[in-house]
Queue: 2 jobs
Job 1
Amino acid sequence: MWAAAEGNLDAVKALMHAGADMKAQLDTGFTAFFFAVREGHLDVVREFLAAGVDLTATMQPAGGVGERARRQSLPTTPLMLAIQNGHFEVALALIDGGADPNDLSMGFTPLHIIPAIRRPDSSDISDGAPPRGQGSLSSAEFVREIVKRGADVNFRLPEEGKERIPNTSSLIEPAGSTPFLFAVDRADVPLMRLLLELGADPMMPNFNGTTPFLAAAGLGTQEPAEEAGEEAESLEAVKLLLDLGADVNDVDNNGDTAVHGAAYNMYPKVIELLAANGADPQIWGKPNKFGRTPLFIAEGFSGRLPRPHQGTIDVVTKLMLEAGLSLEGKRPEVIDIYAPKPAEPAAQ
């Protein structure tokens, strides 16, 4: 394990020749092979491949680690571990050695995880920077190569295992989602264009009826300050999908529209673009199944922290008044999770 993690090929060869057990595993689930993959040591990985290592074996914490770690961990294959760490040359070597380019062991395929690798969310546990992998192969070049090797660019995630999704603050429903939908959710326009070139269907929704167009406008946003993407990128993504024939008045199964999405993301310029392209206030002005209109969302009634955004409020208000729509209505309840809790009565 130590030799593999250090990339010491001579030591690995000597230990293998002496009969070292390749299957020996730590309580964390790591074997020597997984250490080599995690660190991106391509020559050591190839040595294990030549020795017949099991590419279908998964890594998952066992009895010696904390309960929290076990609950938070998903079974990880060597291929997915390589991709998560940005080691794309190692990943291709694994595929060439027999790994499945549509590996679904973690609940999503390699192509689904690429958007999160390229553009991580900024949050308490992430600085928003992609991993610095070993090798010279870029994520875009890797996408081209893995598609050549059989990765399905229109793979829709199954209903089962839908709780498994790359680390994200998005609320996009994974079941039925394609890699393209995940790329749109990250406002990764270069990746969107690449996937389109490789045959991605730009209109395919997930099983909740969320289309890439709705995601491009911002639908699925939970924490605007933490998610990847900026308003200028959202504008570019929306324009691209409109040019491809997206319906500006799409409505998903929750009753959400693109204007709802832009309100969640606090993107007033996107709302103006939608309006200029025919977004109908008689459609988007209605409450979704949670009782939220774009105006209520902009005012901060979005079901999480009360965060009104004046620029979005102003644009939505103007459009509603021009359409003769009332600004009145019962606002949904918002529970401020940071509000002081009432003091408990003193014990008698």
Job 2
Amino acid sequence: MPDPHVNNPHLVTPSGKARARSLGVPFDGAPGANNAITDVPGVAVGYSTIIRGDGPLVIGEGPVRTGVTAILPRGREGFTTPVFAGGFSLNGAGEMTGLIWAEESGQCEGPITITNTHSCGTARDATIRWIVDNYPAELADAWGLPVAGETYDGDLNDINGFHVTPEHVFEALDNAASGPIELGSVGGGTGMICYDFKGGSGSASRRVGDYTVGAFVQANFGIRSELTIAGVPVGRHITGGEVRGKPQGSIIAIVATDAPLMPHQLKRLARRVGLGVGRSGSIAHNASGDIFLAFSTANRAAWAEGDDARDCAFLPNHALDPLFAAVVQATDEAIIDSLVANQTMTGRDGLTVMALPHDRLRKVLKQHGRLGG
């Protein structure tokens, strides 16, 4: 009998790592074809993953456990066309460049990158260089304020060694593609820790009538005792191996949709990310940078050249509740998948961060009557 998990993007990642649904973790809502942010037509995701060295930390030499994630709202072909966007900071102990302009203008221009805290500037600047090199006419007489987000990977990574270079950013941007995407310790999520398990990159999507909502997270937040999966306080039952034991870290989340929405409505979607984060147990600790951006790929004609007035379609506010629910559901699943689709990692000074053990997770969920088929 063929393995039903093989080539099923709802159950496994492209490299064959299990996703939460394959373990019987129940989730609300109907996912898109790939259960990823790339289910929104045109959205592309790319990674550059940097893993090298072992043993004691030598600043500038390693060990290195880091990387870059790139999200292109309209892919490379539609790169030059902005998208309507809105952002929200649930707790501001973090950074997302370009957010002030997105808030002011209601739009996001060009690629979005996510990396480690001390490489955020490199990602931002290299994105501009990539635009200049690949689309020179776009910035010939203009300027750019690209979005770049960060979370801290210094527990596992030589973060002060500045190992992310412009070439890594270029690699992530050049590799961006639609379809199924890898999850876990890849790209900017490579060295991240979530609820004191190995965390990192996660994504999920939901279908809402004719529209799709997708979420992508770089999960690096929470303490073990808070972790809640399918309503079960899993972190209280799966103890041992905690390496942080204190509330630090952050989460960057990007929400995409093809539903026609205005910037103020997208800001409302971005706010709902916090409810999705809360489903997994977080309280948005003081030292956590929980920063979210939502964008819509609809209304492409709004960006035509010229000064004339133009028409834009948008859903009425009373029709947004299903989209709100989709954001909460996709964010929650993306976070859980960042844990499930992962492996134990040893980094600087021999620090080992354990992956969420699948067998113990299934046992706890079964004991609470929450294990699906």
